[in-house]
TrEMBL record, chains A, B:
Residues the entry annotates as binding Mg(2+) 1: 7, 141
Protein name: Crossover junction endodeoxyribonuclease RuvC
UniProtKB keywords: Cytoplasm, DNA damage, DNA recombination, DNA repair, DNA-binding, Endonuclease, Hydrolase, Magnesium, Metal-binding, Nuclease
Cofactor note: Binds 2 Mg(2+) ion per subunit.
The organism of origin for this protein: Catenulispora subtropica
Main location group: cytoplasm
Gene symbol of the encoding locus: ruvC
Length: 170, 170
């Protein structure tokens, strides 16, 4: 399974593509960020994010998409932009008929490091370890996007195993 | 000038198209809502909003777009969806190269009724009066979208007059 993770943001929108199945070594297919200039009109920034993400989807043809679930209790000024960037990511995925899953930051941290309170550096270090990289992807938004993709592969498989076990019981 | 106003929302996204210039009677070209079912996946809802708005843009070819500016201090549960629906509206407009203006609810209320604290019914009544309609457009989201378009025509013209006056002074 190839999963494209998106850490949404207006200034830097992280993208990480990871391939594999839980229980086997995962492979990093690509990682990076889509950037938009802060002085540009909001509607144009969203358009640049769309264009940038379209290129990632086109180049890597993922089977599923994992986007960070945005909460409004965080920084009030940035959260609206984050929500809007996440909408663009979901839209690009939906247009291609791809399943979109939302994972909270704590779910990602817990899946990848065993603790929902892990800090940025711990998550980045675990991303490097899981993907057998010499060092974590940079910037942090790129590492977070890869972490989202890893989380999705691991959680998805756990959910599939659970569904299979329930089906067997019947 | 033909302006398409959008009152963003996931369940009901209001759309109102108004034509004219400030100081002259304005005409309602079209008004309605794009609806999406609440039990549908968020990414699919955003896609339905995109498709629905595309139809409005295609049918009415506006010169400019006015979208309600979303604030995060409001209802925490609904504000994220509103922000995401507004992102889709801005994106559809930007893709067509149209200018997008954001107006706050108080700016719209003040422009149309003279008071930033006007209630929904007052705004709807003023929309009907300004557009010379027998009764306000329904539902409220449709009337709000028309109010946004009216506000944009009136504010835009005031801003243009100001810019012209400044240019004349020099």
């Amino acid at each position: 399974m190839r999963v494209l993770g998106v850490d949404p943001g207006l200034t830097r929108c992280g993208v990480g593509v990871v391939e594999g199945t839980a229980g086997r070594p995962l492979t990093l297919v690509g990682v990076g960020v889509v950037r938009t200039p802060a002085d540009l009109d909001l509607s144009r920034r969203l358009l640049l994010i769309e264009t940038g993400l379209e290129e990632w989807f086109e180049a890597h043809r993922p089977d599923a998409v994992a986007v960070e679930r945005v909460f409004s209790q965080h920084n009030v000024r940035t959260v609206m932009g984050t929500a809007q960037a996440s909408a663009v990511a979901m839209l690009v995925a939906a247009r291609r008929g791809l399943p979109v899953a939302l994972h909270t930051p704590s779910e990602v941290k817990a899946a990848i490091s065993g603790s929902g309170r892990a800090d940025k550096d711990q998550v980045a270090a675990m991303v490097a370890r899981v993907l057998r990289l010499a060092e974590p992807p940079k910037p942090a938004d790129a590492a977070d996007a890869a972490a989202l993709a890893i989380c999705h592969i691991w959680r998805g498989t756990a959910q599939n195993r659970l569904a299979a076990a329930i089906a067997k019981q019947r």
